[in-house]
Design a protein that fits this description.
The complex is a heterodimer of chains A (about 425) and B (about 325). With about 425 residues, chain A is an alpha/beta fold. Helix content of chain A is about 30%, strand content about 25%. In chain B, about 40% of the residues lie in helices and about 15% in strands. In chain B, the strands form two sheets. A five-stranded parallel β-sheet of chain B has the order 7-6-5-8-9. Chain B has a four-stranded parallel β-sheet with strand order 2-1-3-4, with helices on both faces. The chains are: A alpha/beta (about 425), B alpha/beta (about 325). At the A-B interface, helix 6 of A face helix 4 of B.
Amino acid sequence: MNLLITNARVVDPSQDLDGTLDVLIEGGTIARIDKRIKANDVDVIDASGLVLAPGFIDLHTHLREPGQEHKETIATGTRAAVAGGYTAVCAMANSVPPNDERAVTEMVLAESARNGSCRVYPVGAVSKGLAGEELAELADLRAAGCVAVSDDGKPVYNAQLMRRALEYCSMLGMPLIAHEEDANLSDGGVMHEGYFSTLLGMRGIPAASEETLVARDVILAELTGAHVHIAHLSTAGAVEIMRQARERGVRVTAEVTPHHLALSDADVQSFSTYLKMNPPLRSDKHRQAILEGVADGTIDAIATDHAPHHFDEKNVEFDLAPFGVIGLETAFGVCYEQLVREGVIGLPRLIELLSTGPARIFNLPGGTLRAGSLGDVTLLDLDAQQHVTKQFASKAANSPFIGRTLQGRVVTTIVGGVVKYDIREPKKAAAPQRKRK
Amino acid sequence: MRTESSVLRSKDLLGIEPLTPEEITLILDTAEGFKEVSERPVKKVPALRGQLVINLFMEASTRTRVSFEIAEKRLSADTLNFSASGSAVEKGETLIDTAENLVAMHPNMIVIRHKHPGSPKMLAERFENIAVINAGDGAHEHPTQALLDAFTIRERLGRLQGVNVAIVGDIKYSRVVRSNIHLLTKMKANVTLSAPPTLLPAEIEKMGVRVVHSLDEAIEGADVVMMLRIQLERQGKLSFPSLREYYNTFGLTRERLRRAKEGVLVMHPGPMNRGVEIASDVADDPRYSVILDQVTNGVAVRMAVLYLLGGAHASE
């Protein structure tokens, strides 16, 4: 069925569009954007008072399937995605077994087609078994549908392997997503190394652990001409290295997470395991630096690093809990508050970071409302609030934002012209009315 | 009627950081009374009669565990000692499940020692009706050790305010030092730390202490020199090259102690590595060493804490 969304504030950073318009989706793609579109035989959504954006794209999601279905599945993870306004997610390779061969990629794509609520773009492994020793069959992974490769969760520690992987990726036109961490410097750390790790007596992960590898990979990107994408960048030094690299024209891009924008290591004083992730929450100095990076364009995307864990796994001592927090369902509210309401950036730039930016740097469809592009859109109500409770569409509830009230929320998510998530007020949400002429 | 200064605000003792100077003074004053009990022929008072205290020791301990148990017995509490070894913890039972099962048997207090920071807080938040006492959680806090150290300093020097305390050794991995810094700075003592940079945690100066790498400089003018145990397993793990070099650079010898004030107190929380962080002739010299007084006072201080958290409330 074709869909007409009327009277929305349409914000599309890909064409500098911000105005009250109607959007017509036909056959799953954007047909037209205009004032007062008249169309026959369409479902109509009255989006008065709502913002319409190109669907959000998450470059960094752990769907946990295959292998860790007690944490999350492709079905539940993509339901969480559409609840957060995401119409596409990039599924990280560290499943069990990892996505280091075509069969796993195909399984992820098949299950997504069967039970997924949004588009799923698999990310393949850089190395076989994520072991950092031998290259995975990168061309085969690319051919099977992987959009990027990453050993995320671990760095590619061997610099020679990293160089070879980048050279290979440059041939395939595929970005390599780098988890930047020197394990020797991290030395079993569980939180950011600084005043608060000292106060709490916890082992610290120094900022240098991330920055040394970011510097190395900028140099290797320059050497190979390949595209390195820095995952979950979290330190002031890494922002500065990125800034200089971009000025030199090196092909490096970077994402930051909502939790690194919103929280800091001071919050860890609660000892809550829902504040334990890798990279860790940094000090406020680092947080300010990544906010600046977001404002000045050094950062290309916001990615959630949605990392679901089972309740039991997190219900232990801080030292023993696994790293990772969920983020798909709170990303918009957290970022709207931290970035737009705090005056760091405007709404169009936020939408760029959540949608247009991710699509551009990974060369994905979507991220735009140009005629002929995917009919993936997200409706936002900036006046509504989201009370974050333990209830999530995700199978997991390891969110650091439980108990918070977020201003601004996702109300409707449309994937390929099909409504996948909709919590508009009853008046607005009344079954889409058939418009007759 | 109980006045504000005769009770602790919290039901638990999780660390020194949350305490006020008045609360610290209250515990030390209360301990003075209990020290007298330990000197009587019959060393027992009925303060905690009928109360069950579980000593949940998930990590090895000699002094602290024995000291708590003696303190509990002198207060007439029923005590139960639980160690991780030989328990279902070895079968993979989690801390929370272990504690839930112990709590199902209705103890009044839990004294916990665990290698992971924050674990006493985890139990304290979970069990609203139980007083949780931190007997050392990883490198975070060891509040009763700092209290017994303060008791010993106050007993010998008559005050804490303005006292110059040098703390030397493995600062990075020490819970004792963190609790001591909180306590001594709250009580307006002057704290100087000395260690190689490899054994100093990040930004420790922000806790209100002076940091010097020269041991001689740290000892200069000190009223108290507190030596910390070097964890021998750290040798060769990039913290320091050899025990020999450590002793030559940071070991406390009689020669070095000359720079301190007349009547300087030498303290050590134990267990000591003789010839590594401290020379035997210093550790055993009654002119300086109050190391065994610390142990004696530990019982009185723990009696005070147990009494204030259990006895005082129960008697209301």
